[in-house]
Design goal:
Oligomer: single chain
Strand order of the largest sheet: 3-4-2-5-1-6-7-8
Distance between the termini: 26 Å
Order of helices and strands: HHEHEHEEHHHHEHHHHHHEHEHHHEH
Number of helices: 19
Strand content: 5-15%
Number of strands: 8
Largest sheet: 8 strands, mixed
Helix content: 40-55%
């Protein structure tokens, strides 16, 4: 294929710095399946944005809590905490040497800041209750056993609360950029679906049915429930248990004034995600399952009319010796291991091996020949091993390239930034800066 043809097949490069520098971009959502590096990507974007003059906050929902370690914060909680050593707080502007004096950047922009927080799902739910009802009713709700189970682990609660917290941060207007690390869901699509599901549940027919007796009140309410819904109540009691059913009904009665607000806020946040100031970054690894999930998410974002900035392809392998193919490396390794051409003692090499006397003394040095041969064999063995490792790496690179090409052939409109695989995990700001630089470069370094 010609160079022109190859260039046409290459995906557009995702320009991360342009995205971060655009003051119209107020929210960046890092989404994708679990285990693809969303948390590291979100943190690296936050560091780079702050060092390019943005006042950024990173919201993470990572249960491993690696973000706090990387940013030098002892612990993250539901309150944004400033990250020391980033932006105007002793940091350096990405791409510059940085003076670290907290002054303006070389281009006149004020230095940025970075804050970080970790979603506390239950605390966020508690804040909603406390903020939308009186103190007495809030205490009753918070003490209700059904509420405690719902707020701690009901399916979709984490995703809903992540969106609730995003809405709270956006409403405060304390930051000009919010970066969201989405929950590690079983499916990337859960992030978009769960808030609506929970909002519909909390404002749905089932809840309204349970709320009806409380609205009618007293014995009339119980009569209504017993006469009109005796069959349903009996079934629910068997399925849920009488005690749990009572807890649910008490919870529903206490939450009566709040139910409409759940769906309203879920809808408002959904519209916020569709707004021009939001940019989605789909994060994936160059593996079939991860890119298949990424493709589903790209299609879903398009269907929901949500703005996609591009794909971040993490842990991409590369090599500075890619001119040596896997086939040639394997052939050379076999030559060394099986006494091939490179080991034959003939011609000048053979003469040198046979002629082992020195001109001055005439002493035979054949005694050293065995040692030299053993050393040569060791070198050959090591070299063959390295050639086989190189061949394996080139095979991995080829496999990742084919996987990426399948994705880009289906979605040629999606800009891509590739991030080279690192030898270990990122645990500090220097590592996050390195990731940010690779994100900005958009192509994997040969490593």
């Amino acid at each position: 294929m010609s160079e022109a043809g190859m260039a046409m097949d290459e995906p557009a490069r995702l320009e991360v710095d342009r995205l971060l520098d655009d003051r119209g971009t107020r929210i960046i959502v890092c989404c994708g399946s679990g285990g693809v590096g969303k948390t590291t990507t979100a943190a690296a974007l936050g560091v780079r944005a702050a060092e390019r003059g943005r006042k950024a906050v990173v919201l993470t929902i990572d249960p491993a809590r690696r973000l706090a370690q990387s940013m030098g914060i002892d612990s993250l909680d539901n309150t944004p905490r400033k990250v020391a050593g980033v932006g105007g707080d002793g940091g350096r502007r990405a791409g510059d040497g940085g003076n670290g004096d907290g002054g303006s950047d070389g281009d006149g922009r004020a230095p940025g800041e970075l804050h970080a927080m970790m979603l506390d799902m239950k605390r966020t739910f508690d804040e909603i209750v406390e903020g939308h009802t009186d103190r007495e009713r809030a205490e009753a709700i918070l003490a209700n056993p059904f509420y405690q189970s719902l707020s701690a682990g009901f399916a979709g609660t984490q995703e809903y609360m992540a969106m609730e917290k995003l809405g709270q941060l956006r409403a405060r207007d304390d930051w000009d950029l919010i970066i969201v690390d989405t929950p590690p869901s079983r499916s990337a699509l859960d992030f978009l679906d769960a808030p609506k599901r929970l909002g519909s549940f909390l404002d749905g027919k089932f809840i309204r049915v349970l709320m009806a007796p409380a609205k009618v009140g007293g014995r009339a309410g119980m009569k209504f429930l017993n006469v009109g819904m005796s069959l349903m109540t009996g079934t629910l009691s068997k399925l849920m248990g009488a005690s749990l059913l009572k807890d649910v009904q008490t919870f529903v009665a206490a939450m009566d004034t709040m139910f409409g607000g759940f769906r309203t806020r879920a809808d408002a946040t959904f519209r916020l995600l569709q707004a021009p100031g939001t940019a989605f970054l789909v994060v994936a690894a160059p593996e079939p399952d991860a890119l298949r999930e990424a493709a589903y998410f790209v299609e879903r974002l398009a269907a929901e009319q949500m703005p996609l900035a591009g794909l971040v392809l993490n842990r991409v392998h590369g090599s500075d010796a890619d001119q040596l193919s896997a086939e040639r490396a394997l052939a050379a390794a076999e030559n060394l291991e099986e006494g091939g051409i490179v080991d034959q003692e003939s011609g000048k090499a053979g003469l040198r091996d046979d002629d082992r006397s020195t001109p001055d003394t005439g002493l035979d040095v054949g005694a050293d020949t065995d040692a030299g041969t053993d050393a040569d064999a060791d070198v050959d063995e090591i070299t063959a091993g390295l050639l086989r490792l190189h061949a394996e790496r080139m095979q991995v690179i080829a496999r990742e390239q084919r996987t990426r090409d399948r994705f880009t052939s289906l979605h040629p409109e999606v800009a891509v930034a590739e991030v080279a695989a690192l030898p270990g995990d990122v645990h500090d700001l220097a590592g996050l800066r390195a990731i940010g630089e690779r994100l900005a470069a958009g192509v994997p370094a040969g490593a």
